[in-house]
């Protein structure tokens, strides 16, 4: 038995030393939104008068948002429903504008044939409606896939905007003194291909340059089998239209804005079109813009339009204050437990303190290791760890009290350590099983920070069982073989017989 106890303690030392080495290399837990700051937003569906949100559509919207955020590499994001709203929390992400663009962008992609190009100097430019809406649509109203209409060019490059001339033939000058330039409008037909035909989207270097003179980027689309067939069909028809003197342009429309409208090259044959299942959206933006666009196209369009009712950046300073307060509370609680254990249990108290130290090192190591796969430690998670300090101390106290009871029956200290552990471990296992079951149920039914509390509590519960069996049992068993552990040191009330006398 002594050999087993020694082996258990050696194994404990090796595991703790490994954890300390891992932490000593500079590894630390990933902190959540409430501890290190980030983006917090509540998104509200945009509904028409009398329209109700469908629960399945809202769930699908959440999954699309989740896929976009996962592609960003944000650790442990929280995306959940709050009634008919969507709660999004992104720990560690500070770029609010980029978060808005990626999270809330509808990203509905369609390919439409261009039936006519309307320039700012065309008399019909204003007749088709202001703000790029025609007479049948209000500004901001979506153009249905099965209908044609008027859409604006979405380029903000001045070189692609058209100078507006007055009745005197001179360029118009705005109030700011600059020449007035407006985008062209496109009369487009029904959608020939939607974003559902996209398999993947990748950013690639484009042929143009950005306004800052840098290399422009585009987005290459790899289409599905059906998408490739539809793309070949529409480009074949446009090639025929080109040969007949018509525009022959294909409008690539994203969220009802024409991102580009390329013409059919002369090598695109009428009736054959562009085969191969690929297409390119020329945005002439920087690499980040192209990456973001490819991300939202790859993950799919949002089934509904969302607008932020709140969108804020959480300061990491507030998180640091919360973390400091949590750690302070934990240290105070730990100090009180240590004083109690030393005062009431003496040498056994030192073993209990060792169990707490082992628990702390291993718990920190596990939290850090989980951070490698996306888990973030929140203030609620720290609360779970603090609660677990009491659980670990309680396990030792149960053992010590059972040991005292056994000694008071007249058994020797050595025999009492074995019998006491058997009974105490059974009690500890029963209580911890209940706690673990509650933590598991709470983890799967709860959302947000409560899940962090449940996870740390569950891990701590399992760790407590292991530490009691491997470390505490061995340490008390070995101590029971020495003169340091006596009925007096455990405050047992059994009288100690005098030398040469009998009890």
Description:
The chain is α+β, with helices and mostly antiparallel strands and 503 residues long. It is 47% helix and 18% strand. The strands form four sheets. Strands 4-8-5-13-12 form a five-stranded mixed beta barrel. A four-stranded antiparallel β-sheet has the order 2-3-1-15. Helix 1 (2-24) crosses helix 11 (449-479), helix 7 packs parallel to helix 9 (379-408) and helix 8 (347-371) runs antiparallel to helix 11.
Using only C-alpha atoms, the radius of gyration works out to: 35 Å
SS field, number of helical segments: 11
How far is the first residue's CA from the last residue's CA? 30 Å
Provide the domain count: 3
**Low-pLDDT windows of residues:** 498-503
Report the CATH superfamily of the largest domain. Answer: Multidrug efflux transporter AcrB transmembrane domain
| H/E element sequence | HHEHEEHEEEEEEEEHEEEHEHHHHH
Strand order of the largest sheet: 4-8-5-13-12
Main sheet attributes: strand count, strand direction, barrel closure? 5 strands, mixed, barrel
- Fraction of residues in helices? 40-55%
The secondary-structure class comes to: alpha+beta
CATH class category of the largest domain: Mainly Alpha
CATH architecture of the largest domain: Up-down Bundle
The name CATH uses for the topology of the largest domain is Multidrug efflux transporter AcrB transmembrane fold
> What is the number of E strands?
15
Given the C-alpha coordinates, what overall shape results?
elongated
**Quick check: average pLDDT?**
79
Fraction of residues in β-strands: 15-25%
């Amino acid at each position: 038995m002594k050999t087993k106890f020694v082996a258990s303690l050696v194994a404990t030392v090796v595991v703790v030393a490994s954890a300390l080495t891992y932490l000593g290399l500079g590894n630390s837990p990933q902190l959540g939104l409430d501890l290190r700051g980030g983006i917090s937003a509540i998104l509200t569906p945009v509904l028409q008068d009398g329209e109700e949100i469908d629960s399945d559509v809202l769930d699908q919207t959440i999954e699309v948002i989740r896929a976009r955020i996962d592609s960003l590499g944000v650790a442990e994001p929280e995306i959940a429903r709050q009634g008919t709203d969507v709660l999004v929390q992104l720990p560690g992400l500070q770029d609010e504008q980029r978060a808005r663009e990626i999270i809330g962008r509808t990203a509905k992609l369609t390919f439409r044939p261009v039936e006519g190009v309307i320039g700012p100097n065309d008399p019909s430019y204003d007749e088709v409606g202001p703000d790029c809406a025609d007479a049948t649509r209000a500004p901001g109203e979506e153009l249905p896939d099965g209908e044609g209409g008027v859409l604006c060019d979405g380029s903000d490059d001045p070189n692609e905007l058209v100078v507006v001339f007055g009745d005197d033939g001179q360029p118009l000058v705005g109030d700011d003194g600059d020449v007035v330039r407006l985008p062209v409008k496109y009369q487009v037909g029904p959608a020939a291909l939607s974003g559902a035909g996209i398999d993947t989207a990748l950013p690639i270097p484009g042929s143009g340059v950005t306004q800052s003179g840098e290399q422009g980027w585009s987005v290459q689309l790899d289409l599905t089998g059906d998408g490739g067939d539809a793309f070949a069909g529409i480009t074949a028809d446009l090639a025929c239209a080109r040969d007949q003197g018509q525009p022959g342009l294909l409008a690539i429309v994203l969220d009802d804005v024409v991102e580009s409208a390329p013409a059919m090259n002369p090598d695109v044959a009428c009736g054959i079109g562009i085969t191969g299942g690929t297409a390119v959206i020329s945005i002439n933006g920087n690499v980040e813009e192209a990456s973001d666009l490819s991300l939202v196209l790859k993950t799919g369009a949002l089934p509904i339009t969302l607008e932020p009712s709140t969108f804020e950046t959480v300061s990491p300073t507030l998180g640091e204050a919360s973390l400091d307060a949590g750690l302070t509370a934990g240290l105070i609680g730990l100090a009180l437990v240590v004083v109690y254990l030393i005062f009431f249990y003496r040498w056994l108290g030192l073993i209990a303190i060792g169990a707490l130290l082992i628990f702390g090192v291993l718990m920190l190591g596990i939290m850090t290791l989980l951070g490698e796969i996306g888990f973030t430690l929140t203030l609620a998670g720290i609360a779970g760890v603090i609660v677990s300090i009491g659980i670990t101390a309680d396990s030792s106290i149960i053992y010590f009290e059972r040991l005292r009871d056994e000694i008071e029956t007249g058994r020797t200290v050595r025999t009492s350590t074995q019998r006491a552990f058997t009974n105490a471990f059974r009690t500890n296992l029963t209580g911890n099983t209940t706690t673990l079951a509650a933590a598991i149920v709470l983890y799967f039914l709860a959302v947000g920070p409560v899940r962090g509390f449940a996870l740390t509590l569950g891990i701590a519960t399992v760790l407590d069982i292991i530490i009691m069996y491997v470390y505490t049992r061995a340490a008390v068993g070995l101590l029971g073989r020495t003169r340091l552990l006596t009925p007096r040191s455990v405050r047992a009330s059994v009288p100690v017989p005098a030398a040469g006398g009998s009890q």
